[in-house]
Amino acid sequence: MTAKFNLAPEVYQTSQRNKRLRRTATSIGIVVNAVAVGLIILGLVVIGGQKIAIAALQSQINSRQEKVKTYADLPDAVTAQQHLKSLNQLSSQQVYFSSFFKVLQNVLPQGVTASDVTVGNDGSLQISGNASTYALVTKFAKALQAYNVTVGPNASATQKPFFSDVQLSSVSSQSNSAGGGAIGFKIQATMSSEVTTNGH
């Protein structure tokens, strides 16, 4: 007995399934390619827009630079204005320090030399120098502390001292070139604004 099988339906179904898979793969490929092309086009548009914006800004800069060049006296005017500001600052500092050194001259004993004076914006004061004896260094520190109270041309016990928190931060023996000795010192204090505002 001979058995016969009809394989045509199964072959046909397999062929149709393969065709459907190929169509799906082709569709997916088309979509992916379309998205990629869209992204490339979008990137080109963004880059092109940036280039246009940069070119416009550069054009404005060049135009303004050319306009500034037409003002031949502008650099001189700016320089002159800066010099005027500097002169005002120097003038105020001259008044400030001339008043301070007038006070320092009144309080500095003979035999004491101030070689370095530093005044901070916060009123801090540091004086470094030399004296012939320890006693003169102590006298100088006490005179600073008492200035405007018992020391100075307008001193009065009812007034506040011009210098507070006076501290003798360092004292040391030093030798000079002549072979003699000197006393090096450093004094720190807080200076009242009245030193300059009252014109002392």
Notes on the protein architecture:
- Strand 1 and strand 2 (124-131) form a beta hairpin.
- The protein has helices at residues 8-69, 74-107, 134-146, 194-197, and strands at residues 112-119, 124-131, 163-175, 181-191.
- It has a 4-stranded antiparallel sheet, covered by helices on one side.
- With 200 residues, it is an alpha+beta fold.
- The protein is rod-shaped and about 125 Å long.
CATH superfamily of the largest domain: General secretion pathway protein M, EpsM
Largest sheet: 4 strands, antiparallel
Q: Strand fraction band?
A: 15-25%
Measure the end-to-end span.
Answer: 141 Å
Uncertain stretches of 5 or more adjacent residues: 89-95
The value of Rg in angstroms is 45 Å
Second-tier CATH architecture of the largest domain: 2-Layer Sandwich
Question: What is the average per-residue confidence, as pLDDT, rounded to a whole number?
Answer: 75
Adjacency order of strands in the biggest sheet: 1-2-4-3
* Overall number of structural domains: 2
Percent range for helical residues? Answer: 55-70%
Q: How many β-strand stretches?
A: 4
Query: How many H/I helices?
Result: 4
By oligomeric state, this entry counts as single chain
- SSE pattern, N- to C-terminal: HHEEHEEH
